[in-house]
Design goal:
Length: about 190
């Protein structure tokens, strides 16, 4: 079963078919396709993995595309246009232009409104869920960064203490060596 490769996206086909919320899954353009690089870059940014590459079966779900990236066949099936490139819907540090509120007011052309409305409702639901999840993760991230800073400081302090103790140990050892030598010398003198 395909699932969406994007981080924080919980869409996978078993769940989505069950709720039939119109989410579709889309494989990457084939090697040599002009848009392939943009898809890869998008996922690399999303996952913060510069070396990430898709497999033959890697999918991105329809939530990460614009409504105009799809077209409907006469039988009502929804397909992704060849020119489509996924995009980041949540407001993030590197994409401030698309605020979550602007996305909740997406314009739908009349001819497609019958098909799009339930999908949009689901997309909005998904979007709100994602925004809440992201907020939560950002909070956790902040907390972890704080903890990380604190632990680094603590680590530095402990390293310093260890260094100090090591140098003391060297001193103590050399003093002990000296004393041992003196005792030995003294015992030699006594024997004589
Ligand atoms: Zn997805």
């Amino acid at each position: 079963m395909p699932n969406c490769i994007l981080r924080y996206c919980k869409n996978y086909s078993k769940r989505t078919t069950k709720f039939s919320d119109g989410v579709t899954f889309h494989k990457f353009p084939r090697p040599g396709h002009e848009k392939r690089e943009q898809w890869i870059k998008f996922v690399q940014n999303n996952r913060s993995e510069d070396t990430w590459l898709p497999s033959e079966h890697t999918c991105i779900c329809s939530v990460h595309f614009r409504e105009e990236d799809f077209y409907l066949t006469k039988t009502g099936r929804r397909y992704l246009k060849k020119s489509a490139v996924p995009f980041e819907k949540l407001s993030s540090e590197d994409n401030r232009n698309t605020s979550p509120t602007s996305l909740l007011n997406v314009d739908v052309s009349d001819s497609e409104s019958i098909f799009d409305t339930p999908i949009q409702i689901e997309l909005k639901k998904e979007l709100r869920k994602n925004i809440a999840a992201k907020k939560k993760l950002l909070g956790i991230n902040k907390k972890l960064k704080r903890q990380c800073r604190y632990l680094k400081l603590k680590n530095q302090q402990l390293t310093d203490i260890i260094k100090e103790l090591k140098s003391k140990l060297v001193k103590v050892e050399s003093v002990a060596d000296n004393e041992n030598q003196q005792i030995q010398e003294a015992s030699v003198v006594v024997k004589e």
